[in-house]
Amino acid sequence: MKALDILTTAIGNSFRSRLRTTLTVIAIFIGAFTLTITNGLGAGINDYINTQVASIGAPDVMTVTKPVKATTATDGPAKYDPATASRVTSGRPGASTLELTDTDIAVIGAIKGITAVDKSVSVRPDYIEWQSAGKYVMSLGQFGSGIKIDLAAGKQFTAGTTALEVIIPTTYVATMGFANNAAAVGQTVAIGITDALTTQTSIDATIVGVQNTTLLGSNATVNSALKNALYAAQSVGLPASSTTQYASVVAHFDGTATKAQIATIKKDLVTASYEGTTVADQIGTFQTVIDGIILVLNAFAVIALLAAGFGIINTLLMSVQERTREIGLMKAMGMSAGRIFGLFSAEAVFIGFLGSAIGSGIAIAVGTIVSRVLARTLLSNLPGLHILSFTIASVGTVFLLVMGIAFVASVLPASRAARQSPIDSLRYE
């Protein structure tokens, strides 16, 4: 009997006792359905987080600061140092940082693995206006240095351009008088900013895109050229020294760098008395929590599959007992123990495949509908979030896991069938 014949026979034998097979398939269906849904939930949430992370910062940059002694409620404040006191600025809770200078930027840029360093500056525009439709308060988020923004319309910032470009959030569109998201793209807006002498200046910029609402709220984003222009206008009247001190800088590194290489860069920064933090560091804990929750949910699904595995064992043991004389006849006709083992194992794997196919198929159908309904109702304020996302890889993993459990469950009954004596089997009543 060839492999194809064994498979065909196994499929036919699976339906000899339809009720028993159906009940076993239902048990597998429950586990496969649950596992597919939980995997889809994890994929959907992580995809959305990755999209938000891309809008917050590029994967090949890190924020570099110069930390001072960290303080907590137990060790008291750091000792006052008049030499550095004027350079201290606020940092993360429990710590503070020193202002960075152009000298610090040169030192950071010389560290192996860092390809470029951008100065981080604070820009506080007064308003944004389009065609005298009214002036509105403008809130700025991250600057567009290498970030990938989740757009509702338009395009990303043009790399290396000297043109002044801005991306506005969807919440600005109707308020500023645009007909829709697409109508805002390509329009010129005026951005007002006040300098140290209280003189207000207006700078024209082009809207190149409209951004979906993010987890961090609705903020406009400007490219490096516009950021520099706004900062220059804002700095008029300030002492020269105050325009060359920065709370932090953005260090660029090779986007193909491994985790070990990034860790080395961070270590070298620490050696030079600096501290580097990537976007992954900032969001990593949140993703770890999500992955942990999904792992727990997957564990419940696997428990259901293990219970279904015992159902497969019971189904095949009953089948072996009912087909004892048939097994004896196959052996008497020259069928080897290995092929008999393969026949019963194939039955179990087919039952596993059938249960996983039905479970995953229904899970995808139900999950897709639920995801679309939620996106239009409860989650409508989070554009781009599809709470359930199914990929070929995740569904394929469910199939392989279920069929693997089915195969393991078949070992005992298939081995019993393979070991049976043809003479004793033929005498079985």
Summarize the structure.
52% of the residues lie in helices and 15% in strands. It has 429 residues and is α+β, with helices and mostly antiparallel strands.
- Give the number of DSSP strands: 13
Helical content stands at 40-55%
- Taking all Cα atoms into account, the compactness measure Rg is 32 Å
Q: What structural class do helix, strand and pairing data support?
A: alpha+beta
Q: Could you report the average pLDDT, rounded to the nearest whole number?
A: 81
- Main sheet overview: 7 strands, mixed
- Looking at how many chains there are and whether they match, the oligomeric state comes to single chain
Termini separation (Å)? 26 Å
Percent strand equals 5-15%
Overall shape: it is elongated
By DSSP (H or I, 4+ residues per run), the number of helices equals: 12
Low-pLDDT stretches are 70-78, 84-95
Following the backbone from N to C, one meets helices and strands in this order, namely: HHEEEHEEEEEHHEEEHEHEHHHHH
